[in-house]
Write a structure and sequence with these properties.
This protein has about 250 residues and is an all-alpha fold. It contains 9 helices and no strands. Among the domains are: about 80 residues, no CATH class; about 70 residues, Orthogonal Bundle (Cytochrome Bc1 Complex, Chain D, domain 2). Helix content is about 50%, strand content about 0%. The protein is elongated, with a radius of gyration of 35 Å.
Length: about 250
Amino acid sequence: MHRGKGMKFVGDSRVPVNRKPNIPKDYSEYPGKTEAFWPNFLLKEWLVGAVFLIGYLVLTVAHPSPLERQADPTDTSYIPLPDWYFLFLYQLLKYEFASGPYNVIGAIVIPGLAFGALMLAPFLDRGPERRPFKRPLPTAFMLLAVAGIIFLTWESVVNHDWEAAKAQGEIREEAEFDDTAEGYLIYSEASCIGCHGNAFEGGLGPSLAETDKTAEEIADIAVNGIGTMPAGQWTGSDEDLQKMAQFIDELSE
């Protein structure tokens, strides 16, 4: 400040005079290497996510997930099958070295080593190089894992009996009946449920809900057998046999 010439204010150089909005840097000088997260990168992520979401929705509408009949704890013949993305582990458990007494090896040890190796891959090669042929260890681990998964999945698909799997999970008609009726009590006590289901829907044996057999034919089959059903299954009295056969015959009326 000088006398007689007024007052002068000196600005602090630490405070910018012109405040500018928070604009992302111009990355044009690094083409193809980096870009602003907002909105460039995030917008691309949203677009890709939207395409996959619409694709999944179309797929679920065009090919709905197949449903099976209600689980029956008395059906010991049912063999569950995992979803397609776990078929490679399902196939691994079929081999002798990974099943039976060695089940722990197939279920825990081998998958643990495989996924552990994938988790260690980033630490085995920490270089900045991004080209696969310049990173032999991570690339080898990934290719080995993908090849193993594809091979085991293919083996599982080829060797599985899909017709039998479809038949065992098929939704079958259940009969409406009185579970306190004498004929049903005889049926359940005679261990017929194990093959024909607790609602006559079938299992190891055929469905009895809509059978075309008469009461006399049903009684004869229970004693003498038919097809894959051996003879001698019935061990009760003739009177109970007739009551049970008559009860089953009335289900289809």
